[in-house]
Amino acid sequence: MLDGKIFYGVVVQGLQNGRKFGFPTANVKLDDENDIGNGVFAVEVFVKGEKYKGMMYSGTRPTLGLSEKSIEIHIFDFSNDIYGEKISFTVEKKISKEQKFEDTEELKKNIKHYKEEILKYFLCEK
Questions:
Q1: CATH 2.40.30.30 applies to domain 6-125
Q2: Gap between the Cα atoms of 43 and 59, Å rounded
Q3: Mind listing the pLDDT tens digit for each residue in 33-73?
Q4: Dihedral of CA 65/71/75/79: which sign?
């Protein structure tokens, strides 16, 4: 379904929640209405011709009480300001379905776990 498909979008200003949780994200507004589905995914991200590994969340952020769909990518080993930049990404593997956690501490614990799982996935992929 998503294998090999390249998604394109522009990095837009978000609510800064990822940064507050220790996982800054690039919030992506897709160029078209492709439905990625909801959940956590391992992704490869292309920024200014460079390839990075990352962790993407696509969904409504139910733990935070939000309902608007968001696509947020935490790019590993990356700290550049890319607001307004056009990026692309491919979904490599779905890690988890969208979930509502008890509180933000539980959410942060799970984000950390997802990151570890995705890093292991990319190490074993080679």
A1: yes
A2: 15
A3: 777 889 999 999 999 999 999 999 999 888 888 888 899 99
A4: negative
What is the reported pTM?
A: 0.89
Burial class (CB in 10 A: 0-12, 13-18, 19+), 15: middle
> What six digits make up the tokens of 23?
């996982």
70: number of Cβ within 10 Å? 20
Burial state string for 96-117 with b = 16 or more CB within 10 A and e = fewer than 16: eeeeeeeeeeebbeebeebbee
- C-alpha distances (whole Å) from 32 to each of 38, 40, 64, 67 are 17, 20, 26, 20
Confidence class of residue 126 from pLDDT cuts 50, 70 and 90? low
Contact 60, 68 (CB under 8 A): yes
Three-state SS sequence of 2-67? CCCCEEEEEEECCCCHHHHCCCCCEEEEECCCCCCCCEEEEEEEEECCEEEEEEEEEECCHHHCCC
